[in-house]
Amino acid sequence: MSVKNALVNLTRHSYIYTISTFVQRMLGLIMTPVYTVYLARETYGDYSLLYAFMAFMNVVYLYGMDVAFMRFYYSDRFKKEDVYASAFWAVGGGALLLSLLIHGQAPYLSRVIFSDATYEWPVRLAALILFLDTFSNMPYLILRVQERSVAYSVARILRFAVELSLNIWFVVVQKEGFLGILYANALASAINILILLPIQWRYLKGRFNAAAFKEMARFGLPLIPNGLAYLVIEMSDKFLMDRFLDRETLGIYAANYKFGTILLFLVSAFRTAWQPFMMKTAREINARTVFARVMTYFTLMGVVMVVAVSFLLQDILTLKVTDTFSLLGERYWPGIPVIPIILTSYLFYGFYVNFTAGVYILKRTRLMFLFTGAGAVVNIGSNFWLMPAYGMMGAAWATLLSYLVMAVLLWGYNQRIYPIPYEYGRITGLLVILVAFLGVYYIFEPGLLYRLALLVGFAAVLYMGGYLNKTVVGQVQSVLRFKK
After folding, report:
1. What is the pLDDT of residue 20?
2. pLDDT tens-digit map of 195-217
3. Domains held by the chain: number
4. Which domain holds residue 247?
5. Which own/partner contact pairs does 462-466 have at CB distance under 8 Å and 24+ positions apart?
C-alpha cells in the first residue's frame, strides 16, 4: 500500500470516528451547562468523584481484553468467532464478580470515595453501570476491528441520543440531580446492549477457546497497570483537590476540565482507528514511513485545535443565552484559564498514542506500565507540590507534565526497538508556534477582537512555514473523495 493510500485510509476512518466521538462526548459538553445550573458546585464535585472511580474500575473490568481481541482477531491460529467468544465470556464473568463485590462493599467504598458513608446507593448504581457498560462496549470492538467506521458511528450516535434524552428527563424534568445522571446512564447502557445484539450474534456462536484466552490474557493483563496508571493521571487531581482544597473548587475545576477534553475528541477518534490500522500496516514494507507521516499530520491537527479552541472557547462559554443562562454557569467561570493547559496535555497524550506503534507490533505491552507509571508518579508529586500553592492551575500543570513525561519516555523506548523516521523539524516548528501563541494568550490576556486577529496571524504563520501547502490540501481532498 502506498503512503498516500495508507494515510487516506487511516484519515478517512479517523474522520468518521471523530464525528462519532464528538457526538458521544457532546453528551458531557451539552449536559455540563445543564449540570452547572441544576447541580450545586458541591454536588457536581460528588458526580466527578464517582465517575472518576468508575473510569478507574472500567480498566479493571476489561483487563486488557479489548486490545487483546483486536490483536488476535487477525491471528491465523484461531477462528475469529472463538477469539471474540473467549474474550466476551471471560470479560462478562469477571464483570459479574466485580459488580457483586462492589455492591457488597458499598458502605466501605462510599467512605473511601466521598469520605462519607451515606453514598451507598450511588456506589451500587455505579456497580450496575459498570456491569452493563462492559457488555455494551464489546460489540463496538467488532465494528472497530472490521473497520466499519460508519456503522460504529451510527451506533454511538444512537447511544448518545438515548442517553441525552434520559439525562434531560431525570435531571431537568424529574429533578433527580446526581442520581438522575446515574439512572440515565444505566438505562442507556441496557438499551444499547439490545440494539447491538445483532452485530455480535454470529460471534457469540463461537466457543470459548482456552488457548486463545491464555494468549489474549498474556497480552492484555500487562495493560491493566498501564491503564490504572493512566487513570491515576486523569483522576488523582480530583481526589487530591477534594482533600487539599474543597469540593466546591473541585466542582469548578471538573466542569472546566470537561471542556478541556475537547482535544480528546481528536485523540480518541485517532486511537480508535490507529490500533487496527497499525496492526495491518505493520506488514507493509513502508510502514515506518507511513507512521512518521501520520505523526506530522496529527501534530498539525492537534496544534490547530489547541490554539483555535483556546482563543474562542472563553467567549462561547460566557455568552449569555438569556439573562440568567450561559453555556457555563457563571459560578464556574473562575476555572476557564485551566482549559488551554488541559488541551495541551491531551496533545501530548496524542503523541504518546502515536509512539505505541513499536510496543504493540513487537508485543512489548508488559513494559507500558513503566512509562505510564512514571507519568502517574510525576502527576501525584506535581499535584502535592503545585496544587496547594497554585490551586486549580497547579493541578492543570501537573496533568500537562505527566503526559509530557509519558510521551518522551515512550518515544525514547520506541525508537530503540522500532525506529521511525519522524519529521522532527516540522514537529518542533509546530510546537514552537503553539508555545508562542499560548504565551500571548496568558501573558497579555487579549480581548476577542485581538484574539481573532491573532488566529489570522496563526494561519499565516502555518502557511509561511509550509504546513498548509498543496500537499496537505490535496491530502484532505483525497480523504473526502476516498471510497473504501
Report:
1. 60
2. 888 888 888 887 888 888 888 88
3. 1
4. 18-23+235-484
5. 462/300, 462/304, 462/433, 465/429, 465/433, 466/426
Answer yes or no: is 3 within a domain. Answer: no
- Distance linking the first and last C-alpha atoms of the chain: 13
Contacts of 144 (CB under 8 A, 6+ apart): 70, 152, 272, 275, 276
Tell whether the model's pLDDT for residue 126 goes beyond 70.
yes
Report how far residue 133's alpha carbon sits from residue 131's, in angstroms, rounded to the nearest whole number. 6
Q: Do the domain assignments include residue 211?
A: no
d(CA 251, CA 442): 23
Nearest to 63 by CA among 365, 454, 342: 365
Digit-coded pLDDT (tens) for 307-330: 999 999 999 988 887 776 777 878
Residue 396 identity: A
**Domain annotation covers residue 370:** yes
**404, 411 Cβ separation under 8 angstroms:** no
Residue 53 lies in a domain: no
Burial of 459 (C-beta count, 10 Å sphere; 0-12/13-18/19+): middle
